Amino acid sequence: MNSTPPPVLQSVKRALDVLVAFEAAEPVQTPAQVASRLGLNRTTAWRYLVTLAASGLVRELPGGRFALGGRTVALAESYTHQWGRFGSAGGVALVRLRDATGETAALHIREGWTRVPIRQVESQHELHRTYRDLGEPVSLLVGSPSLAILANLSEQEQASYLDSHADLAPEGRDEVLRRLAGVRAQGYATTEGARAPNVSSVAAPVRDRHGRVLGAINVTGPEQRFTADSVPRFIAEVTGTAGWIEEQLRDTDGAGAATPRRRTASSGSVSPGGRPRRAAPAPRPR
């Protein structure tokens, strides 16, 4: 059997690149803007936009501008339907977590050897973190949500993943394993400047009712607000919210609590099987 991957149809790929160029930050664009963003000829970009408009994936607005079309709503609903109760419970939890911490809260799902940020509720502070890469895969070695997921995979899965990183030196691999062991033992991960300078994050894993890691939930924001006083409270809120989502996933009758219960920094939180997570110490994220 031929294991060589089939060739990529560049015209189809480029059309999809044009489609996903319409991000939340720039929902309306001209052909010139799309062309500049993707490095295309302006006429080529216009032809792709007209073709996508004929399929209802984009729509033309007055003044020669374009925006996403109505058919993308069905695509979004189809994608989010895959998340099931993880997505619906997580959506409720994100609002509560953002309000409790004041920081941007986000939900991440595991997809193979990556994690994908799928939802966020942004902080209301003027200076705050915004995920610009919703829907894009992120390495399981980068960021607190990644570490929270990777640390709670089986030893065999961790070994397979690290084996795929041939560039990871033995001493680097040992350091990663030590860090993952610490994350697993304490029930959460913290990072500072992992993906963006001067940005901190606290994350906890979310498992299904069989104990399998589905993804992670986190809060993230400017490092000056992640202080020795605030971090323990953020840890308690994040781990408590992760525990609440897990409770909803275990509740097959759908009769769980309507909103996450608020946690204090000394109360800890619930982990799978009803065991309390370790109460949060007061470290500064590293």
Automatic annotation (TrEMBL):
Biased composition (Low complexity): 254-274
Alphabetical GO biological process terms: negative regulation of DNA-templated transcription
Domain IclR-ED positions: 71-251
InterPro entries: GAF-like_dom_sf, HTH_MetabolicPath_Reg, Tscrpt_reg_IclR_C, Tscrpt_reg_IclR_N, WH-like_DNA-bd_sf, WH_DNA-bd_sf
Any single Pfam family the record assigns to this protein: HTH_IclR
Ranges where the HTH iclR-type domain occurs: 9-70
Region annotation (Disordered) ranges: 248-286
An example Gene Ontology molecular-function term: DNA binding
Superkingdom field: Bacteria
UniProt keyword terms in alphabetical order: DNA-binding, Transcription, Transcription regulation
The protein's name in its UniProt record: IclR family transcriptional regulator
Annotated source species: Ornithinicoccus hortensis
